[in-house]
Structure formats: structure tokens, C-alpha cells
Automatic annotation (TrEMBL), chain A:
The keyword Transport applies. This is Branched-chain amino acid transport system ATP-binding protein. It comes from Enhydrobacter aerosaccus. GO terms for molecular function: ATP binding; ATP hydrolysis activity; branched-chain amino acid transmembrane transporter activity. PROSITE patterns: ABC_TRANSPORTER_1 (PS00211), ABC_TRANSPORTER_2 (PS50893). InterPro entries: AAA+_ATPase, ABC_transporter-like_ATP-bd, ABC_transporter-like_CS, BCAA_Transport_ATP-bd_LivF, P-loop_NTPase. Transmembrane segments: none annotated. Residues 2-235 form the ABC transporter domain.
Automatic annotation (TrEMBL), chain B:
Its main location: membrane. The chain crosses the membrane at residues 12-35, 42-63, 69-90, 102-123, 148-167, 193-216, 222-240, 247-267, 279-301. InterPro entries: ABC_transp_permease, BCAA_transport_permease. This is Branched-chain amino acid transport system permease protein. It is found in: Cell membrane.
């Protein structure tokens, strides 16, 4: 469904992505795991049209996304839930949910989707007319996922859904994502810093570090976590201990 | 007491003009981070569009001679066109530019408009009388109020209600508010950037057109720099109100109008010619105590 082929992204002189390739098949849950500054968010941003790669190709069902603005990519059925939630704080919860539906013509289906999403997120129904800025962090995360789904996406990309949330809330968020995947027939591409949780439900996992993909495999083959550790930290021997004299990899926050 | 009421109506009417101009500036700032210093020149253009283009000293009215229900939409359409044109020719090329770059570009647009007016209409101010019948006074008890002031206040109320309905009740309005808050996120959700920005320019042009008509019928003169002081006070109004907040712009506009009229009325005679200095001193005082304006917004926080 989605093919990312050898993309390079620079921020000024900083190379954020140095040739990233990945693919997502229809109906899959694919997770990109990697430390802060690895280029995970940049990868999603490039797919969504918010960041322009200076080399490489991105295609969605055979159609090139190169040079399309974010709104055009969104209309092709790709919805990005960026890191840090980004609710429209002064808009009501209901307005937040409806933002992504204004380009849709099927009014009846929009109303049906609205109901369906409120069934998944009963907390939001209680707060429909409140400004979204007043919701708790967990509720905001629910809102941005619901808001993304209102665009009727085929591919939903979620950037670090667990960031800044209590573990219990994170469990809820993932429960809902997985439930929705079956209910709405979604394909999911998820970024996380930690592989622990995603190993339980992902179909395939990519490990990213320093702007490159260092490992790609089916989650079933990675359950012991050794290979992930090795790729994640770049240890040569896979013992879980850092090599004594190699310099620490420089990670730049700006890459996010 | 009557004197104070009279001043209050003056303040409301002057504040209305500032508030309308400030709304036009605040709208573009909210969405684009553009401080549009060409807004004053949009206003001048709207006023000059009333007369036949010529270098002669006396103005010959053209659109200004039409009945008001034709003059209003005609001037509005012309200024909206100018606003859209300046977006299309200049600001659209600068979408990735920083806020200071945009501001400087807006100075350039303003200078171009000013100098085109200068070339086409000449540098000398021209007298023009538009809707002079509105200068008649309405007597309410002991108050004598020029009809024009009531019309100004009335039009301002109508425009503000209209804008507020538009922003809150229509899908385009909701998209504009979302874009003003987090432009990138709005685009990730399919909101068309150029469309929303164009809409903001159009509304800003419409507001400028109304200010031109009200202002020129108050002053009765045309000058190629007539919009500059209005722009200055409107800009100050948006800063006091809190850049990016529309309610703030309106409150700021009325506040500046109020302070200005009250300084004019109650300062000792010999200090009155320094009225603006007093107004600006009060502005500085407000900003010392509330640096991000009366209604602070997140708009000033740098977006990553």
C-alpha cells in the first residue's frame, strides 16, 4: 500500500534521514521503533507531506506523493496523528472532530462516523461542547485519534501515542487503536521509542537510529528483544553492554 | 454628564474604526503570522476608488455618486480584489518565510499601493463629500449625535456579528479558526491552506473597504497617506489586545479609541496637541503590566 524508497531529508546542515526505505501492506500494523532523534517523526512527516525529502520516492497505492502538500495527502486517505497531540484548544471537541470532514461530500456517512467514534470514546461525548484545551492528556490523545478517523483514512500514522501519558492510559489508547483497526479496516503505522509494548500487537517492526533503518523483521521473530537491542543501540556483540570505546551516537533534538 | 456621554459616543465611533481595522490585521496575523502594514493602504485605495482617476485638484466622484447600496458592494469588491491580488502576487510566494520577512514584504506592498495612488491621483489632498447628509445631527434628549457616528457604530456591530457567526457557525469559519491555531495540523486534516488564507485576505479586504467608506465620509478628504495613521492605531490595538486574538483586536480598538477621545476631551488645553504622546504612554503602561496583551494567545509562541 505504502512504499517509501530511499528518502533523504536535511534540516539545514543536519541530515535527519539518510536513505530510509520502508513499506506498509494493506491491513498491517507496522511499528517504527528508535531512540529520540532517530528520524521517526521526520519519516512520518515526509509521508504526510509536511516535510519535503530532497531525494527518494514515496508512493501510495502506486501513486507518487512527491511534492503533494499535506492537505492533498490527507485527501488521499492518509491521516497523521503527530507527536504532542495538537488539539485545537480553543475549538470545541465537536468542532475538532468535524475539521477533517469538511472536504467529504457524504453528509450521512459523516454523521454515522461521528456516532461510531463517540461510541468508542464515550468520554468525548460528555464533553462535546467544551473547548478541547480543557481535556486531560489522555482525553486529548483520544480526541486526536478520533479526529484523524473522521477523515475516513485508509492509513493512519500515529507518532508516539504514549508520549507523556500514564501507562494505564497508554494501554487504553492501544486497546482502542487495535479495536478500531478491525472495525474500520485500517492500516496502521506507529512510531514508538520503546519496543516492549508494540511487540505484542505489531505485524512488523522497523528499528531506526541516526536517520537510517537498522533492522526490519516480523514481530514474531523479534520477541526475545536481542536483535532489537542490538539495532537500537548499535552494539556489535548483542550482549546488551555498550562497547567500551566507541563514541556515543550524537542525537539531535532538532531532527524531531 | 451630558458632556461625558457625548465623548463616550465619540469614543465608540472612533473605536469602531480602529476595531474594524484591527480585526483585518488580526485575522491575517492569526492565520499567516503576517503583520500586514499594507492594510492602511488597502483603506486608502478603497477611498480613492470612489473618484475618477485624474491628477486634477478637484475630485470628480464616480462610484461615490452611486446610491449607497451600489457603492458599498462596489468598493468592497475592489478592495477585496486588491487584497487577494497582493496575496497572489507577493505573499503566496513567501509561504515559507519568517514573520519579519512577511512584515517587510507588507511594507513593500504598502509602498507600491501608495505610490500608484500618488502617480494616478496626484500628491495633493482632495476634498470629497460622501454621504454628507449623514452629518445631520440626531437629538436624543440633550445629546446631539451626528447620524454618521450612529451609522459607524451600527455597521461595526453588524460586521462583528457577521464575522463571529461566520467563524463559529460555518464550516469555513471553523477551518479558519483551526488554521489560526495550528496551521500545520489543520493541513494534515485536509484543510486547504491557500483557500483558507485567501479567505482571510478577502475578509480583511472587506473590513478595510468598510473602514475607508466610514473614514472618508467622516473626514471628507482624500490623501495618499490617509490610511497610515489608521493602520498605526489599529496595529497598536492588536498589540494591546493580544496579537492573534480577534476579540483582543476589537477590545484593543475600542480601548485606543476611548483613550484617544478622552485625552482629547479632558487633557488641559496646552497639552492637547500632545494627545498621541499620552495615548502611547498609556499603551506602554499597559504592555509593561500585560506584555502579551489584554487577551493573550498562543499565537506568539514560536511554532516548531
Amino acid at each position: 500500500m505504502l512504499e517509501v524508497d530511499n528518502i533523504h531529508v536535511n534540516y539545514g546542515r543536519l541530515q535527519a534521514l539518510r536513505g530510509v526505505s520502508l513499506s506498509v501492506r494493506e491491513g498491517e500494523i507496522v511499528c517504527v521503533v528508535g531512540p529520540n532523534g532517530a528520524g521517526k517523526s521526520t519519516t512520518l512527516g515526509a509521508i504526510a507531506g509536511g516535510v519535503t525529502p530532497h531525494a527518494g520516492r514515496i508512493t501510495l497505492r502506486g501513486q507518487s506523493l512527491g511534492g503533494l502538500p499535506p492537505e492533498a495527502v490527507a485527501r488521499l486517505g492518509v491521516s497523521l496523528v503527530p507527536e504532542g497531540r495538537h488539539v485545537f484548544g480553543s475549538l470545541t471537541v465537536a468542532e475538532n472532530l468535524r475539521i477533517g470532514t469538511f472536504q467529504r461530500r457524504d453528509r450521512a456517512a459523516v454523521a454515522a462516523d461521528f456516532e461510531r467514534i463517540l461510541e468508542h470514546f464515550p468520554r468525548l461525548r460528555e464533553r462535546l461542547q467544551q473547548p478541547a484545551g480543557r481535556l486531560s492528556g489522555g482525553e486529548q490523545q483520544m480526541l486526536v485519534i478520533g479526529r484523524a478517523l473522521m477523515t475516513r483514512p485508509r492509513l493512519v500514522m500515529v507518532d508516539e501515542p504514549s508520549l507523556g501519558l500514564a501507562p494505564k492510559i497508554v494501554d487504553q489508547v492501544y486497546d482502542i487503536l487495535i479495536k478500531l483497526r478491525h472495525a474500520a479496516n485500517l492500516t496502521l503505522l506507529i512510531n514508538e521509542q520503546s519496543s516492549e509494548r508494540v511487540l505484542k500487537f505489531a505485524d512488523r517492526i522497523y528499528v531506526m537510529r541516526g536517520g537510517r533503518i537498522h533492522l526490519e523483521d516480523r514481530a514474531a521473530n523479534l520477541q526475545d528483544g536481542k536483535a532489537i537491542m542490538q539495532a537500537y543501540f548499535g552494539f556489535a556483540d548483542g550482549t546488551g553492554a555498550p562497547p567500551p570505546l566507541s563514541p556515543a551516537p550524537t542525537m539531535k533534538r532538532a531532527a524531531e | 454628564m451630558i458632556g461625558f456621554l457625548q465623548n463616550l459616543i465619540d469614543a465608540l465611533s472612533l473605536g469602531s474604526l480602529y476595531a474594524l481595522a484591527a480585526l483585518g490585521i488580526g485575522l491575517l496575523f492569526g492565520i499567516l503570522r503576517l503583520t500586514n502594514f499594507a492594510h492602511g493602504d488597502f483603506i486608502s485605495f478603497g477611498a480613492y476608488a470612489l473618484i475618477v482617476p485624474s491628477l486634477e485638484v478637484t475630485a470628480t466622484k464616480f462610484i461615490g455618486n452611486w446610491p449607497w447600496y451600489l457603492t458599498l458592494p462596489a468598493i468592497a469588491a475592489l478592495v477585496v480584489l486588491l487584497a487577494l491580488l497582493s496575496d497572489f502576487l507577493v505573499f503566496r510566494k513567501l509561504r515559507q518565510a519568517s514573520a519579519p520577512t512577511l512584515m517587510i514584504a507588507s511594507f513593500a506592498v504598502g509602498y507600491v499601493i501608495q505610490n500608484v495612488i500618488l502617480m494616478v491621483y496626484g500628491a495633493r489632498p482632495k476634498a470629497i463629500d460622501v454621504w454628507s447628509s449623514l452629518q445631520q445631527q440626531v437629538v436624543i434628549g440633550e445629546l446631539r449625535v451626528p447620524q454618521l457616528q450612529l451609522v459607524t457604530i451600527g455597521i461595526t456591530i453588524v460586521l462583528m456579528l457577521g464575522l463571529s457567526l461566520f467563524l463559529n457557525r460555518t464550516s469555513y469559519g471553523v477551518q479558519m479558526r483551526a488554521a489560526a491555531e495550528d496551521f500545520r495540523m489543520a493541513r494534515y486534516l485536509g484543510v486547504k491552506a491557500n483557500f483558507v488564507i485567501g479567505l482571510a485576505f478577502a475578509i480583511s479586504g472587506l473590513l478595510a473597504a468598510m473602514v475607508s467608506l466610514l473614514f472618508v465620509s467622516q473626514t471628507g478628504t482624500l490623501s495618499y497617506v490617509m490610511g497610515v495613521p489608521l493602520m498605526l492605531f489599529a496595529f497598536i490595538a492588536t498589540v494591546i489586545g493580544g496579537m492573534g486574538s480577534l476579540i483582543g483586536a476589537v477590545i484593543g480598538g475600542f480601548a485606543v479609541g476611548f483613550v484617544s477621545v478622552m485625552c482629547q476631551a479632558y487633557l488641559p488645553e496646552e497639552l492637547r496637541s500632545f494627545r498621541d504622546a499620552f495615548v502611547f504612554a498609556i499603551v506602554i503602561a499597559v504592555l509593561i503590566f500585560r506584555p502579551s496583551g489584554l487577551i493573550p494567545t498562543k499565537a506568539l509562541v514560536q511554532r516548531v
